[in-house]
């Protein structure tokens, strides 16, 4: 798929961004021209859901990957930050299934597989039912390898709701991606040796619509309080 109509985000470009301690919070949206047909994008192109399928996409749509990508890629040099609000509602018993994923990927990886967690040039955080913990787990993946997991909920039942917020700090200079708990300002995982030789695109995937409703809402630009842009390891 080609996305040359969108700009690359770089500190060399004149951007209407917020900047704090070398971190930029670029304003961008979800790409309504190519998201997967089983999903919907609402809320002024900021929210991706796995329910309420839409036919409004106009371009070459994702065929394999059940999600969407951002309208801007991040390129060297620079450090960029965005957040995603998560809402889950469990309406059927959950099995060992993927629920959602968020991360960064090179554009050629985005529609290769059903989950970007299995891709070589994608660095992903996901939530899924974990067979080890027997509950919802927060996990990080790269190239099909599970790097870390942590229980998100201790008890799962039908009718349960869950709300959280995650932050993603992309350091194109050091080749790192930090995943943080954006409510408590705690780092969950730091990807190192991220391949930044090519631009990286924000991607969001939502799954398992028969058992859980998922809404992922982008927070970018002026929606982020840059005075709180600090993280604890």
Automatic annotation (TrEMBL):
Alphabetical list of InterPro entries matching this protein: B30.2/SPRY, B30.2/SPRY_sf, ConA-like_dom_sf
Annotated signal sequence range: none
Domain B30.2/SPRY: 7-223
Top-level taxon of origin: Eukaryota
Protein's name according to its UniProt entry: B30.2/SPRY domain-containing protein
Organism: Sinanodonta woodiana
Lineage per the UniProt record: Eukaryota, Metazoa, Spiralia, Lophotrochozoa, Mollusca
């Amino acid at each position: 798929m080609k996305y040359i109509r969108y700009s690359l985000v770089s500190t060399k470009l004149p951007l209407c961004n917020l900047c704090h301690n070398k971190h930029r919070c670029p304003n961008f949206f979800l790409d309504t021209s190519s998201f997967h047909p089983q999903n919907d994008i609402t809320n002024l192109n900021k929210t991706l859901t796995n329910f309420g399928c839409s036919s409004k996409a106009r371009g070459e749509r994702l065929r394999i990957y059940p999600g969407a990508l951002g309208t801007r890629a991040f390129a060297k040099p620079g450090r960029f930050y965005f957040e995603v609000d998560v809402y889950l509602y469990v309406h059927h018993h959950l099995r060992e299934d993927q629920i959602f994923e968020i991360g960064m990927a090179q554009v050629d990886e985005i529609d290769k597989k059903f989950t970007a967690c299995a891709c070589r040039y994608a660095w992903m955080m996901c939530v899924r039912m974990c067979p080890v913990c027997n509950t919802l787990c927060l996990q990080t993946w790269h190239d099909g390898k599970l790097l870390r997991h942590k229980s998100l909920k201790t008890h799962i039942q039908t009718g349960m709701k869950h709300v959280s917020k995650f932050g993603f700090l992309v350091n194109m200079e050091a080749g790192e991606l930090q995943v943080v708990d954006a409510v408590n300002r705690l780092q969950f995982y730091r990807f190192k040796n991220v391949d930044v030789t090519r631009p990286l695109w924000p991607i969001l995937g939502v799954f398992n619509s028969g058992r859980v409703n998922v809404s992922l809402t982008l927070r970018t630009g002026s929606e982020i309080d840059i005075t709180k842009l600090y993280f604890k390891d």
